[in-house]
User: Fold this.
Amino acid sequence: MQDKYVTISRINNYLKSYFDNNPHLQHVYLKGEISNFKNHTRGHLYFTLKDEESRLSAVMFQGYANTLNFTPEDGMNVLVEGRISCYPSQGTYQIYVEKMEVDGIGNLYIEFEKLKKKLASEGLFDEKYKKPIPKYPTKIGIITAPTGAAIKDILSTIKRRYPICQTILFPCLVQGKSAAPDIVKQINAAQEYDLDVIICGRGGGSIEDLWAFNEECVARAIFGSKIPIISAVGHEIDFTIADFVSDLRAPTPTGAAEMAVPTINDVKYMIKQLRHRANEYISNMLKLKKDRLNLIKDSFILKNPLSIYEVKEQKLDMLIDSLNKNVKNILKNKNHELVLMVNTLKLINPLNILDRGYSIVKKDEKVIKDINNIKKKDNIDIRLKNGNIKAIVEEVNNG
Assistant:
């Protein structure tokens, strides 16, 4: 009975033999975008080729890899030649690449990297220029095509999560040569509205479909916006210049809507927390004021109000006594000083010598101190204790 069962190795080797003997799979031509690129230390290249709907594992051994005139990178679109075969150990099929060259679309990727490097050097991607996204917006602008999945996903998500928020659509082209100028026009138009945040983007597509969001004019319009912008371009694996310059990058349009608004439950929880904090704050303040009131009520001053008056009265008496004492001391000291000054004046007063029988002789209002200062017939004045005498000198004897 068990003869009909085969091993995994046998079936995988059978499939490998089937692939290897199928002439249609021995030389195939494929085009796709490189992702999950890995350059092995032995020189072999491992990567995935993808298009909009499918993926295929790929390997390019060192001998073939050495013939390349470019360095493969994720996101690069390439044209490859090789054979399809099965890798028995893992039971997977893959393409063994023998030739590879950059696809025409790959040139777009090169332009993408060139512009990315230029704008990064100018600082357009710096975090210091990123504007914060409001937590609770009231009005959101949406810049995208008026039809398609993107606008439907954004509007339905906002309505479901935060229905009180108002949305304004700024319809624009999101694909083709006219798309970039149209996006710039709507970004500038949105500046005239009282918006809290802008969602700018579109659904997924090829690199050509998303190229409008890689244009320099769009990047500079986003950077110059006074309103914070959330980029919502393509799928999670898609990156555009708009993603790097925007204030916030969302993986999808739906993700952008989720980042732009909270849920009603979030708002209810926030209100609940604020109410709890407010009640707690009020309770603490009431307790603090009550404790302070009780402290004042129990204070000695309020219970004995006359004590304030008594203390002041006693202090006033002490001040008055001190003032009176100081005044008396000052008057006593000044009186003593006055007596000393009077006595001193008496001692030095020249008129006092007249009481002892002396007189003062003057000539021409000047006191005569020397006999040589007077001569015969001079008119002199003699001052005595109780009067003056005018006289004429009859004789002068100087010895």
Observations:
- The chain has a mean pLDDT of 88.
- The chain has eleven helices and 14 strands.
